[in-house]
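Class prep. Sample record?

___
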Amino acid sequence: MILVADNFQITHPIVRSALASGDPGQLNEWVRRIEAADARMMDLNTGPLGKGAAQKMTFLVRAVEAITELPLLIDTANPEAMRAGVGVARGKVILNGFSMEPDKLERILPLAAEYDVDIIGYLLDAKGRPPAGADERLALAVELHRACVAAEVKQEHLIIDPVVAPLLWEDGRERNRAVLEVIRTLPEVLGHAVRTISGLSNLTAGARFSDQQMSMECAYAAMLAASGLDMLLLNMFHTETVRVARACDAFLSEKVFTWQTA
């Protein structure tokens, strides 16, 4: 699994301060810490950004790319900010993302075709709700795929997120078992290989993070890996979870195993 850092968020004091002051230097240490934690990609979770969204996204993408060469996920629901981010980026970017919500189909999905880049599709219905069962999610995956074809987005550019649910939800465990089934079944349903991504932090949303939550993260990360997940979005400073994810890669790799490279 490719580990994608979800640590770069607009709510973080360092990110918020850099954006308010216009001083990109404030981001140096934070971005380098994330990269040093062994992230392979970084999600720029900026939220909608509000007034001046395009300018703010331009500032953030340029500032981060000046520090790291990691591929970036441009994570915003604001189409103008999304366009600004992908338009100014020098390196590889992934648009994060779209769903069957009409505004995202109309204003975000076409950007993937225009800029010829990858885009994450969430298994959410037209009202932004995740279905409970695997069958309903797979039906949405077919709809997402058809929407990509209609928008002239290359099928290899679609990355599907089955949407991990918080364990505290009444049916959280059942929903997350459905996620695993979706990941395993997607290639058969769509008729071709498709990459998948999951946000592991959703699992413990609504709970104060503790050793117990870390254990659940580790267990589910291993289950996602065994199901064939391609990209794992997680807090890179949860070192135990990162170690488990790396161990899963060692088990699933086709390379000759050695303890030195595990």
Notes: The chain has a mean pLDDT of 95.
